[in-house]
Amino acid sequence: MATAPPDLTSRDTPAPRLREAPGRIGNVIFRGISTGAGIAILITLAAVAAFLIIRSWPALTASEEALGGISFMRGSTFVEYVLPLAFGTLLASLIALLIAVPLSVGVGLFISHYAPRRLAQGLGYLVDLLAAIPSVIYGMWGFFWLMPLVEPFQAWQSETLGFIPLFAEYSAPAKNIATAGLVLAIMILPIITATIREVFLQTPRLHEEASLALGATRWEMVRQAVFPFGRSGIVSASMLGLGRALGETMAVLMIISPGLSINLHLLQAGQHTTIAANIASQFGEGGGGLGGNVLIATGLVLFAITFGVNLLARWIIARRAEFSGAN
Description:
Domain ABC transmembrane type-1: 86-313
Membrane topology: Multi-pass membrane protein
Organism: Georgenia alba
CATH architecture: Orthogonal Bundle
Oligomer: single chain
Number of strands: 0
Largest sheet: none
Protein name: Phosphate transport system permease protein
Structural class: mainly alpha
Family: Belongs to the binding-protein-dependent transport system permease family. CysTW subfamily.
């Protein structure tokens, strides 16, 4: 006669012991560290903004008579003083982006999809090494080597294309916004290239193979698979480079002949300067009192420009995300 199977639901059967999930303590610690790091970033950003606003307030509320006593303001109001600085900052950064972004896309594409593996590894290492060079080195290189090199070319531009206001009335030496923008382009090139290279390398292999299987050439595959996937990455990399170009100080200060004009005469010296370079050059004279508050107020304007650029970049990336090949 067959025996009945034991009753597994009996109260005499001991209940299984619940074991803690592996790595639970580590997850809690990691979550706490990550949350703390995020909060620390927000606190630091708020502290910087509060410092700039508090120290800028005396300059923003000062009368024209009080501001007229500051020598480097030359009798202008704060708005009249900061507008040419903001214009020069944006102009130099725009020139740098127009030069650096196409080169960065080309170099990143060559490293990720065209160069042999060993050559790609060497080029990638050199690109990363360029990003570690201090800005003062770029400034000295631009002043002693690049400036004499571009002077004949800029003189030829002015003679040949002088009917265009951008290239009119070149004046030697080439201590102008065009040369400063060229040096800035070389400075931000490794940052943009490194980011774009990593984005291109993340392109799904199946997308590339599907394009090639349909008979596409290598370049057609890049246009159909790599560029759509990396579009938002290119925008992000460009904004990273723009952030460094906006705040660059020493290289621009060593190259450009400062001026407070709002025009597009790229080859004329003494026409433009940037906010960061102006703060560095005037801080010794106006670092205390109301003059220091004016310089900090211009730093607040630079902070606002950088913050606005980052917000614009996030908006562009969010709009482009739904069209990205990653989706």
